[in-house]
Specification:
single chain, about 220 residues, alpha/beta, Rossmann fold, 7 helices, about 30% strand
């Protein structure tokens, strides 16, 4: 997928969310993150923590890492991490958070889209994808791109608001087009060089400034062949 086609897909998603044709994806997320608080808190996602804790620290990519809560957690646990995101504001907040926690030397950032990015750290030992809620074509392209930059024997870990969460759980997009189902994720993974260890729906909890809220979460862990 070219940079233009990847960008066009994201623009369609933004139009679906905002109703505006002119706003760019990076502008949308920059505006969202342009507040003093951390929109998604500074607490690492509990599924990322649970699935990554057993792994030996190495080099990692945090795709769609935003403000850096998972990036910083990985760095604090010995990983060298690159946060890849389309929002320059989110990446700036990530680096400020890294300085605050004393791990800035272990973190780098790259402003780019999931389908097109080329990590400065590749090939890596781990790629995480926390809540990359985009249309199916862009999600599949982003996962393919990420997997191509993970070493054989390395791991892919992902967490999403599931389509099954619609009308039942808290938070996340309300558009089914950007909510992967268990069935569709299984199909996407079957087309990649992966040995899937975990792909399932779990009773999740969304971290908010008001505490944890219930959610149906799609969780993935796989080893790259």
């Amino acid at each position: 997928m070219t940079e233009t086609s990847g960008t066009n897909l994201i623009k369609r998603i933004i139009r679906r969310i905002t109703g505006e044709a002119s706003v760019s994806p990076s502008a949308y997320w920059n505006a969202k993150y342009e507040v003093s608080e951390f929109i998604y808190t500074k607490v690492a996602n509990r599924f990322i923590v649970k699935l990554c804790e057993p792994l030996t620290p190495g080099v990692a990519i945090d795709l769609a890492g935003g403000e850096g809560r998972n990036t910083v957690w990985l760095a604090e646990h010995g990983w060298r991490v690159e946060n890849v995101d389309i929002s320059s504001v989110g990446l700036q907040k990530c680096m400020a958070f890294a300085v605050e926690r004393g791990v800035s030397e272990r973190i780098s950032v790259l402003q780019a889209s999931g389908a097109d990015f080329k990590s400065t750290l590749a090939p890596v030992d781990l790629g995480i994808v926390p809540y990359l809620q985009v249309e199916e074509t862009l999600l599949a392209a982003s996962l393919k791109n990420l997997v191509s930059q993970i070493k054989p024997g390395g791991h892919l870990v992902g967490v999403w608001h599931a389509r099954e969460n619609l009308g039942v759980g808290f938070g996340g997009p309300q558009d089914p087009a950007v909510l992967p189902s268990f069935e569709r994720m299984t199909q996407i993974c079957a087309g990649l060089s992966l040995d899937v260890e975990v792909c399932e729906l779990r009773d999740g909890q969304v971290q908010t400034k008001d505490g944890l809220k219930p959610s149906i979460t799609l969780v993935l862990k796989a080893t790259v062949r």
